[in-house]
Write a structure and sequence with these properties.
- The complex is a heterodimer of chains A (338) and B (444).
- Chain A has one domain: Ammonium transporter fold (Orthogonal Bundle), CATH 1.10.3430.
- Helices cover 53% and strands 0% of the residues of chain A.
- Chain B has 444 residues and is of the alpha/beta class.
- Classes of the chains: A mainly alpha (338), B alpha/beta (444).
- The complex binds iron/sulfur cluster (2 copies).
- The site of one iron/sulfur cluster (SF4) has 15 residues of chain B, from α12 and α13.
């Protein structure tokens, strides 16, 4: 081979940057999209259970959240962050946490609070201390308690999908005082044919999505297992002590927002602890607070509050669970603020 | 004989891309000019012992060790010293260098006497390692004679020869083990004799079963153990390797010798064998030249001082334009911007990456996904630390043992936010070291 035939690299086009030069290809956008995909079974179940209006509520929330984020970034003079998919995810979660009857304007108010106050004023994704979707949801719950707790019955299985739901209000398993008798059959509870927020009732759909995220290592299994387990244990003990006043643990774990919260909200990366030990503490803490609110609080449901309260403890949990670096015998981790 | 090994914390499994692993080592042809840096090692540069215009022979000493932590440099071929000046190094710094014009004869200087190593004294052997200018060839380039002189109060019971080659793409050590197994084993035994180490282990990652089998066969009856380790980056990092093999944890801020171990690259072992048994100083090494843009990736035995450009020419030039050229492997190597940089004693690979192999990403705020916590083999918290480092809170980084970061890149490899974690850790390390220096200076 003569020298002239050998093509040599053009050094003027070389990029110089720090190692490592390989990357596994993960991105924030991919993570958010996968979570959205994992939520799809539960969304579908919501539409099948509560009719096409469920789709409308979720759509309004998603679009509103994305618009609010776009406007906020514009006002803050930052580059648009819609591409990371987190605003869409927040919108979807917000929608799934609302009753199917929520008026559109209320969804928009929720979106403004979730994205504006829950996320953007802190500086956007990564800096928000509280789960934005839950901030929006809880704010709506405080502001419009009646609208937020008006539950309609699932549409009857025989009516066509587009027929919508009867406007009969229906009790939720947790909203009705326990009288020793089950209002819904266990099967109804399991597949979500009960009253409730539109995306929270179908247990198998939520578990399926959750398992997908665990398998893809996007969430830590410790969080849902500890969260749901703790609720089961506490309500189980309470039920044994007073079977007449406390519903059995199976009813507790299958109703309300527990499945949705444990798999999709208590596992939000930004607002929960980093490590495995932290995940266990976070899950148990959420479980305890949820059980306490359900059993002794004035609200029938406590998942949202529990997660938000534990969000506030996240920095503390991180500090106290920080492990020792390899080869370090004593380290000042606990005293050092992160 | 399979032994159970411990699994070090964290780590990642990048694509191996060892496309040159089947290509045998070829000796690179002579060049007209070599650029031989006088600093190819950590420590003080070597002092030139020849002057401009002198005629030198291959293997002749051209730079003597300039201090305790320093290493000798030898001429890669015979010729005339054209100039004593400087050249660009892989890190982008200027290195004092000697420009050697080859006379094409490649005439060898009188070799050093061969030593009868099983009977030579450890001091004699150590002296030879120093005379031959041997440095750590796996990447660190720490002068070997210094590494092999542990202080009196440290007993070394275990020598580990590192043939793990956990960096993706690189295959030089693999080929060397396949083609010169005896040299590797004898090098290990000589080093063990210098250190008085009873246990000698050659560690190889399980993705090189041919090398494991060959070395096991050749090492039978010599007391040298050959062990196959799990494929997991950075299995070949000193502290992780020691832990995998012995369960000992090198203390924070400490050295392998604090737990009775010395880790040495297999290439260094082979070089020590040559220096002792053949009297040959270190003036050539095996380097992988690889990457998908190249026409013919492979492994070559290059004379030290060969410019990268010549190495790329040998590999047939490029088919497509590379976007990055890296000195070393893809996880810890340095991106370079010039091809005039010469191959040094520690250059294990020259890697070319095409545009599609490189993710040009924007760095966004940490989303606290916790991956870097899980993959950092030093069990640090690179994500949280990086946020503090951006705020220049270096004292905090110091308290969190940022100096223990081995810059392996596992954290940044898997960060979905594309954060430049290694760069930030490096920045904090430099700042902490500077602060420590000024503190001790104030005290004195
Ligand atoms: S991997 Fe990146 S995004 Fe995840 S915690 Fe670490 S720095 Fe943050
Ligand atoms: S580069 Fe440093 S911080 Fe990052 S994973 Fe390696 S040791 Fe940990």
């Amino acid at each position: 081979m003569t020298e002239t035939t050998v093509r040599l690299p053009d050094t003027s086009k070389l990029v110089v940057s720090s190692s490592p030069h390989f990357h596994d290809g993960s991105s924030v956008r991919k993570i958010m999209l996968l979570v959205i995909v994992a939520l799809m079974p539960a969304c579908l179940a919501g539409v099948l259970t509560f009719g096409p209006r469920a789709l409308w509520v979720m759509l309004v929330c998603v679009v509103a959240c994305m618009l609010v984020e776009a406007i906020c970034t514009k006002l803050q003079g930052r580059t648009c962050t819609l591409g990371d998919g987190s605003a869409a995810l927040t919108g979807l979660l917000l929608g799934m946490n609302l009753p199917v009857t929520t008026p559109a304007w209320m969804c928009v108010v929720g979106a403004i609070i979730a994205i504006g106050i829950g996320k953007m004023i802190y500086g956007g994704l990564g800096y928000n201390p509280f789960n934005p979707a839950l901030v929006g949801r809880v704010a709506l719950l405080m502001a419009f308690p009646t609208a937020m707790t008006t539950w309609v019955a699932p549409r009857s299985a025989s009516s066509p999908l587009w027929a919508g739901v009867d406007s009969v209000t229906r009790a939720t398993p947790l909203g009705t005082p326990w009288t020793g008798e089950q209002l819904f059959s266990t099967w109804e509870l399991f597949i979500g044919r009960t009253g409730g927020s539109l995306g929270e009732t179908c247990v198998p759909a939520l578990v399926l999505g959750g398992l997908l995220l665990i398998a893809l290592k996007i969430i830590r299994w410790q969080v849902p297992v500890c969260f749901i387990g703790t609720v089961a244990v506490i309500t189980g003990i309470a039920h044994l002590a007073a079977p007449e006043q406390v519903a059995p643990p199976l009813l507790h774990i299958m109703s309300g927002g527990l499945m949705l919260g444990a798999f999709f909200m208590a596992t939000d990366m930004v607002t929960t602890p980093l490590g495995r030990t932290g995940a266990v503490i976070f899950g148990v803490g959420c479980g305890v607070i949820t059980a306490v609110i359900r059993l002794w609080g004035s609200y029938p449901e406590g998942v949202s509050f529990a997660i938000l309260i534990m969000n506030a403890f996240t920095p503390l949990i991180d500090r106290y669970t920080a492990g020792k670096p390899f080869g370090v015998i004593s380290h000042p981790g606990r005293e050092v603020k992160l | 004989m399979t032994k159970k090994h411990l699994r070090f914390y964290g780590g990642v499994q990048p694509q191996e891309s060892k496309i040159a692993s089947g290509v045998a080592i070829v000796s690179a042809p002579l060049l007209a000019t070599y650029v031989v840096p006088l600093q190819q090692h950590i420590g003080v540069p070597a002092k030139p012992v020849v002057a401009k215009g002198d005629k030198v022979l291959r293997g002749q000493l051209i730079g003597e060790a300039g201090g305790f932590i320093s290493a000798a440099v030898h001429a890669p071929t015979s010729g005339i010293v054209k100039e004593i000046g400087s050249c660009l190094g892989p890190v982008g710094n200027q290195l004092p260098a000697l420009i050697l014009e080859s006379d094409g004869e490649d005439q060898a200087a009188e070799p050093m006497s061969a030593l009868d190593w099983p009977n030579a004294s450890p001091d004699e052997l150590r002296k030879r390692v120093a005379e031959a200018g041997i440095v750590g060839m796996g990447g660190a380039a720490f002068p070997s004679a210094v590494k092999l002189s542990p202080p009196q109060n440290k007993t070394i019971d275990t020598l580990i020869l590192n043939g793990v080659e956990c960096e993706p793409c690189l295959t030089a050590d693999h080929r060397l083990m396949l083609e010169r197994p005896e040299q590797v084993i004898i090098g290990a035994r000589i080093t063990a004799r210098i250190l008085g180490a009873k246990q000698v282990i050659i560690a190889i990652e399980a993705n090189k079963p041919d090398a494991v089998a060959l070395l096991q066969e050749k090492a039978a009856g010599t007391g040298v153990e050959v062990r196959s380790l799990q494929v997991r980056y950075p299995q070949g990092a000193e502290k992780q390797l020691i832990y995998s093999l012995t369960g000992r944890k090198v203390p924070s801020g400490g050295l392998p010798m604090d737990v009775g171990c010395v880790v040495q690259n297999v290439g260094t072992g082979a070089a020590i064998c040559e220096a002792v048994c053949d009297g040959k100083p270190l003036y050539e090494r095996v380097t992988t030249v690889t990457g998908t843009p190249l026409v013919a990736p492979g492994n070559w035995r290059f004379r030290v001082g060969t410019p990268y450009l010549e190495a790329i020419k040998l590999a047939g030039g490029v088919k497509t334009d590379p976007v990055k050229i890296i000195s070393g492997g893809p996880m810890m190597g340095m991106a370079v911007y010039s091809l005039d940089i010469p191959i040094l004693k520690n250059c294990s690979g020259i890697l070319l990456l095409a545009a599609d192999e490189l993710r040009q990403y924007e760095s966004t705020p940490c989303i606290r996904c916790g991956r870097c916590n899980d993959t950092c083999p030093m069990a640090m918290m690179p994500g949280i630390l990086s946020v503090q480092i951006e705020k220049e809170r270096f004292e905090l980084a110091e308290q969190w043992h940022v100096l223990d970061c081995i810059e392996c890149g596992c954290c940044a490899y898997g960060c979905p936010a594309g954060r430049p974690l290694v760069q930030l850790m490096g920045r904090a390390k430099a700042a902490v070291q500077a602060a420590r220096k000024s503190r001790t200076a104030k005290k004195a």
